[in-house]
Amino acid sequence: MTKEIVNEQPVQTVAQSNKRNIAIEFWRFFFAIAIVGYHIGTILAPRDMLGRISASNWMAGAGEILFIFTLTAGYFLVKHFKRLQANPEYSKRKASGRAWEYLWDRIKALLPVLALGIILGIISVAIFKGVSFAHAIYSTFNGLWEFTGLYSAGFGAAYGQANGAMWFISGLLICSYFIYWFMCKSEDVFAGFVAPFTFVFLGGWWAWNNTRASQVAWSTFGVQNASNPAVIGNPETNAVIGFNNGLLFVLVGMCGGVLIYYAVEKLRKLKFNTATKLILSIVYLVVASILVIYTINPTIIDGAYSITNNEVGGGLSRWLVHLLCIVLVGLTLLERDFVTELLNNDVTAKVIGYLGGTALYIYMLHMPFIYFYVEIRGKSPKTPYSWAEVFWVVTLVSIVLGILVKFLMDKFVLRKKKVVVEGETMSVPDTTMQTVDAKTETKAQKPARVNAALTTKPATRTTKAKTGTQKEATKQTNSKTTTKPQTKKTNKK
Fold first, then answer.
1. Cβ–Cβ contacts within 10 Å for residue 172, how many?
2. What would the mean pLDDT of 235-239 be, rounded to a whole number?
3. DSSP state of 306
4. Smallest Cα–Cα separation from 45: which of 57, 33, 32, 63?
5. Please, which residues have CB within 8 angstroms of residue 39's CB and are 6 or more apart in sequence?
6. What's the rounded Cα separation, in Å, for the pair 8 and 347?
7. What is the pLDDT of residues 88-115, one digit of tens each?
8. Rounded to two decimals, what is the model's pTM?
9. What average pLDDT does the structure give for the chain?
10. Where are the beta strands (DSSP E) in 57-123?
11. Residue 269, C-beta contacts closer than 8 angstroms, at least 6 positions apart
């Protein structure tokens, strides 16, 4: 057990290892970089009316690989919940209060970067579209709702989302609250029914209709209003009553991550021999290779892939890619194969772990710099440039900015919590918890300190009292020393 400070109150939690899973951090960083390339080819190119850059299939598969981030979000949500569940008093508190605290921890960890990303997005889009300064100011005020993280629920700015990547952050915040509330209310009901039901039936509906994760389309489960084209969404997807496709995408993925948590915890109790680990390693390599190749360029595997209509052709279906994402995340978090063991090596652990910690910041901040680079490079259609040119420059800027933001966030916003576990103090980076007092003692420490204070001189034997003052212990020792040495006995309680 450990003691942590949650909502300014000390609570007991389940002791968890401070060793980070570097393998999952490696994939988070890799796919965050891939999403940078995806946005350059699929979002920037169609909006560049001057024809300075053409659409590219490079990194086009990253649009589906985003599913990995929803899976890990659901997994770590449950892990956080199980850590605090060990405290009976904390568990008895209202589910709404605990869910709001969980959401606030996430907002606090993201709000400075969220604000920076939205402001940069508004400035970059205003410059890119050549609007007036006054128009940019109006757009800023119209986009104040975006600072609440409610964009995916329909609260958007006049431009739509100025920083297009933020729809995913909005979806995470919204879904996290409701999932955590339900877990606090009844873990058994959510994990045993709601999560699998949502994943199977809503995910199955998605697969059947070939729906895409998008902040500009709305799902209605068959209820449509084609006669009223909306600002957000196409006429054929405009809803009478519906939900944002991006929000549903995050919900399905996080429910999948919840299921992965319980599956992984169950499998970790089994014994894996060398042959089993070898089989898992082969599966891991095959799945990872397919996903990496598909992410870098889907046309290598599936020549029918079309970036213009954002659909996968006759090769890999969208939900097959998502299934491979589930396998990759599950095996990585299970940590029972040789590939994961290799990725979790001590030599590169610090570097990969740190870069993995910048992945979310890279995702949140890269979009504005795509537009900034285009304007700096030149506005004339006579000065075209390639996808690769934009990709490498924006990627480098995004990584440097991600490292800088992580440093500032760790130092001034998140910090490191001090956790005392079985007499040893460990420094555990944690963005979900408040700072923990390094002097907090565990139950095992207090008796040890009392016994040390009651220790007398070696010449006199004394009873080790569990409670009492030093004076009482001395008095008891003096009474024992009056007996003969050969009849002296220690009274054991």
1. 24
2. 47
3. B
4. 57
5. 164, 165, 366, 367, 370
6. 37
7. 888 889 999 999 999 998 888 888 898 8
8. 0.77
9. 76
10. none
11. none
**Position 5, amino acid:** I
Cα→Cα distances 442→418, 420, 423, 454, Å: 13, 7, 7, 20
Does the structure show a pLDDT above 50 at 227? no
In sequence order, what are the beta bridge partners of 416? Answer: 429
Long-range Cβ contacts of 412-421 (<8 Å, 24+ apart): 413/108, 413/109, 413/112, 414/109, 417/4, 417/5, 419/2, 419/3, 419/4, 419/15, 419/18, 420/2, 420/3, 420/445, 421/2, 421/15
For residue 287 the two structure tokens come to 């799945």
270-296 burial code (b ≥16 CB/10 A, e <16):
eeeeeeebeebbeebeebbebbbebbb
Looking at 210-337, list the stretches that DSSP marks H as alpha helix, in order from N- to C-terminal side.
245-267, 274-296, 318-334
Provide the token pair at 131.
């609007």
**Distance (Å, rounded) from C-alpha 66 to C-alpha 168?**
9
Quote the pLDDT of residue 209. 72
At 200, list the tokens: 């199977």
Mean pLDDT of 323-331: 96
Residues linked to residue 425 through DSSP beta bridges, in sequence order: 420
